[in-house]
Predict the 3D structure of the following.
Amino acid sequence: MAADGSKAAIDKEALRRKYRQERDKRLRPDGNAQYLELKGQLAHYLDDPYTPRVEREPVTDHVTFAFIGGGFAGLVTGARLTEAGVRDIRIIEKGGDFGGTWYWNRYPGAKCDTASMVYMPLLEETGHMPTEKYAHAPEILAHCQRIGRQYGLYDNALFHTEVSALEWDEAATRWRIETNRGDRFTAQFVGMGTGPLHVPKLPGIPGVEDFRGHSFHTSRWDYDYTGGDPSGAPLEKLADKRVAIIGTGATSVQCVPHLARACAELFVFQRTPSSVDVRDNRPIDADWFAEIATPGWQQRWLENFTDNQTGGQASEDLVQDGWTDLARRIRTKIMQLPPDQITPQNMLAAWEDADFEKMEEIRARAEAIVNDPETAENLKAWYRQLCKRPCFHDAYLQAFNEPGTHLIDTDGKGVERITATGVVVAGTEYPVDCIIYASGFEVGTEYHRRAGFDLKGRNGKLLSEHWSEGMRTKHGIHVHGFPNAFIVQPTQGANLISNVPHNLTESGRTIAAIVQHALANGASEVEVTAEAEQAWIDLLLTGSGRMIGASPDCTPGYYNNEGQEPTAESRLRVGYPAGASAYFRYLKGWRDKGDFDGLAFT
Ligand code: NDP
């Protein structure tokens, strides 16, 4: 702001320079290899603190549909298959219940940061009204359980069970499935919704194994140690504790305010600040909800959000949040261009201008809220908004005004070392009782490493071999050589990261239609042809490329393969060239036509 209160002009070249400098100092040659895999001495970080493991006999039967993963992907696909008349569906889940992300992430303050009305799947089908614009984690976990109950998905589910082998049996035209609980069963069809972010990782900081205090990862929150509970009760056992939290991504932004209130002292170790915009969470009014919840309401909201967020032409914005705000600003800027000036180059420039303005506002917000000027300065994010997961919170920046809360900024270098008693940055040791790793999840490692198994398809071919040069699918769902197998995730489909469940519900609906068609026509196999898979890849590669956050110009992170140049593999992590809304329209048309062009039924 200028002294007279007007907005100062933005020096775009200076900002571009600053963004480059901040990116360059974070680039590291080891990229993804910097993180520690949780095995051996570190395997205990994966233990489930929430549900005791129940012994059971191995299963050795046959089911029509087996689905790996009991999060949103498995639940929505299971629900649609049930509606399509498939009765014996078995979900195999490594957690102790349904929920996926929402089973594991029970840290204090966890909530969705895409509006509940579009984020929580099957609201209309279950009749559930979200209590808040952004529902807290316990409500979302309960919703997952509600879907499981309503569609009878608990009956056949295997919890605390991990698939160890999945092999196509050509003679029997079915999949053979083995698990770490000794199960050996078969399924005519398999689905996989193992999620992109479910394998916790630790930062590769020297000395991680040496720490003698208490430590845990945010996705395995230790309430026995901290006190409190997932619904936000005070973490009373931390009142005399010095606590370190390492990482300042979306998870940390949500739990830091709770820690700041509870700990004797809290040290927040920061490598890269998140952009933290206004959240403005509020309760949902039951009368308002009753008025808008007319038949088909959630589909209308989903389509409206996607249209608004991805630059469509929707005349109204039902959700009105931080996601749609940036898109609205870009659109407004483009509309201000004279018609003959609407070129791809000018549209990109309009996007950059809107982004600069937005990020200046977010940086100004840090300055306005945080009392200590140095801390405020260090909390400013110097990159384009979609380079990292945008965060929205109304108590995170404020937490740094708590007297016991200290931001330890590492100037992009990360924590230097962990000792038996504390955390070291720039030669200074901060002694602590507990280290909480808010260090995120594996992304960009091979699919089979994250899934825990490799699919063995026709003629013994492994999925990892088929994907050795990168993911190859049609619609992100079907893979040639892997009949009767379906993958439920966003990449090579809509690739809509602002609302992942929208991708999953559309895939679930599509898979149910295909399975219903196969069963009704007595087809024992359905497989995408090699030509159709190639044609889909060719189509994807006509697009403008990966989303903005995946650009190597961005500050390093999991969106852009830690800042490494795009590889053949990462170039295929793209979506439908015409955008998410167009993809969903296309997929509906493809599905409704009923001949499932590109798939062979035999
Ligand atoms: P992230 O991967 O986003 O964050 C990990 C953090 O650890 C980053 O701040 C990272 O810094 C930091 N880090 C890594 N190595 C070091 C090191 N050596 N020293 C210091 N810091 C280090 O994980 P999150 O769990 O926060 O979020 C993962 C994803 O989960 C989000 O992007 C989002 O998609 C999703 N999520 C969604 C939420 C919601 O919808 N409500 C809430 C929480 C998460 P750097 O940035 O420099 O790499």
In short: The chain has a mean pLDDT of 92. The radius of gyration is 24 Å. Residues 244 and 435 are 5 Å apart (CA to CA).
